UniProtKB/TrEMBL annotation:
Transmembrane regions listed in the UniProt entry: 31-53, 74-94, 106-126, 138-159, 192-210, 231-251, 257-276, 283-303, 327-350, 370-391
Keywords of this entry: Membrane, Transmembrane, Transmembrane helix
Name this polypeptide is given: Uncharacterized protein
Domain of life per record: Bacteria
Protein source organism: Sulfurimonas diazotrophicus
Keyword Transferase (UniProt): no
Lineage summary: Bacteria, Pseudomonadati, Campylobacterota, Epsilonproteobacteria, Campylobacterales
Length: 399
């Protein structure tokens, strides 16, 4: 039996509930969002640790360090939340890949969960230790960062192993002897380094956003704003140049250096570099960064799709059993609830940052309307979800 046939046999016999291209597009979108906060957390924690060693002699570093620790803490929360979605969409259309990897590297899957928990708890310890000015805060921060980086490495291992179906049997039974230890650990160093270095331009552009955002407040001095902006430019410039070199190396190994997607990413990096070095409002630069992130996510999916199709596994041939009620429920939740709730949080965050003194959300009409709408949608969603579930349960039981 050839590998393509085996892969297709491993598919879920129930099929998928909607068109594969939709899940593919959602994967590209949600992975880009997840990666953005992974990179911001990585860059933010690194800068926080550096700042913790300098804050006693510099008021600028002291203020920035506190804010970056807080940013890192929130970023880890968001990367965990947003990391669920791409895994689910991967599981739907590439289920053989994900489940086989969980068997080959099962021990590391468990280690990943506990490493993430440990790193996250230590990050909170770092946050409170730095806030109190503890001398051991730097060491705690370094340990937390190393553990979280290790968790990221494990997720890279799972992703890399999932696109190597031709090596699965060799890893499962090396030399003809079955290995059920679950300790397989394989990675692509060039691809991994490229993704890690993306944390530098992400952090640098975030610092430019931060400096523009606080520039309208009276409680941040021009000296501090200039300090943050210069630091952001330096980090972003270095990161973009380093990422470009590693990206070229990765594409050479993949044989995709002249692929239209690769060229589009190169163009976006050049544009970002020019924008970072200019005095263009950083919010526009962030827009280009978002496009670059989506292109990189699309390239990752293109590599996987092309490899799997070459082996005889085409996601567009996946049997479909369209479940319209579930699809409608998902889309309404994703669009109506998701955008309303995110709009509320972002609007409130923006107004808090732009208000001198304490911001009273109850007196702001826009924030109040968005908050009330979010609560109403959640309550309606609960009624529909549980009502629909109970109706289906009793209907099937009676029949």
């Amino acid at each position: 039996m050839d590998l393509g046939t085996t892969l297709n046999i491993l598919r879920d016999p129930a099929g998928i509930p909607f068109y594969p291209v939709v899940f593919q597009g959602l994967y590209v979108l949600t992975w880009a969002l997840h990666a953005a906060f992974v990179l911001l957390a990585l860059g933010g924690m690194t800068l926080s640790i550096v700042g913790a060693t300098k804050q006693k002699s510099s008021a600028n570093w002291k203020l920035l360090t506190g804010h970056m620790v807080q940013t890192s803490k929130l970023s880890v929360s968001l990367l965990i939340l947003l990391g669920i979605a791409p895994l689910l969409f991967t599981q739907v259309i590439y289920d053989p890949n994900w489940y086989v990897v969980n068997s080959l590297s099962g021990v590391w899957v468990f280690v990943f969960v506990y490493a993430l928990l440990a790193g996250y708890m230590l990050l909170y310890w770092f946050y409170y230790a730095n806030k109190k000015g503890s001398s051991g805060s730097v060491l705690i921060g370094v340990i937390s960062l190393l553990i979280l980086v290790f968790a990221g490495l494990l997720m890279h291992v799972f992703a890399y192993e999932s696109i190597q179906p031709d090596k699965w049997m060799e890893w499962y039974a090396p030399g003809g002897v079955i290995d059920t230890s679950g300790l397989n650990f394989h990675f692509n160093p060039v691809r991994l380094l490229f993704l890690v270095t993306l944390s530098a331009p992400t952090l640098g552009i975030f610092l430019l956003n931060y400096s523009d955002f606080v520039s309208t407040r009276d409680d941040f001095t021009p000296e501090y704003i200039s300090f943050v902006r210069d630091l952001g430019k330096k980090i972003a410039t270095f990161g973009l140049l380093a990422s470009a070199v590693l990206f070229a190396g990765w594409m050479l190994l993949e044989g995709l250096l002249l692929n239209p997607l690769s060229l589009a990413i190169v163009v976006s990096v050049v544009v970002l570099l020019l924008m970072v070095r200019s005095n263009i409002t950083s919010y526009f630069t962030t827009g280009v960064l978002v496009i670059a992130a989506l292109l990189i996510s699309a390239l990752r999916e293109y590599i996987r799709f092309d490899l799997m199709s070459g082996l005889g596994y085409n996601i567009y041939d996946y049997p479909m059993n369209i479940d319209w009620p579930s699809v409608i429920m998902f889309l309404l939740t994703f669009v109506v609830f998701g955008f309303t709730a995110i709009g509320w949080i972002l609007t409130m965050a923006w107004k808090v940052g732009k208000t001198q003194g304490v911001f009273d959300a109850s007196k702001d009409p826009i924030v109040t309307k968005l908050a009330n709408a979010t609560v109403a949608i959640v309550l309606l969603w609960c009624v529909v979800y549980f009502g629909w579930g109970m109706f289906t349960l009793f209907k099937n039981t009676i029949v």
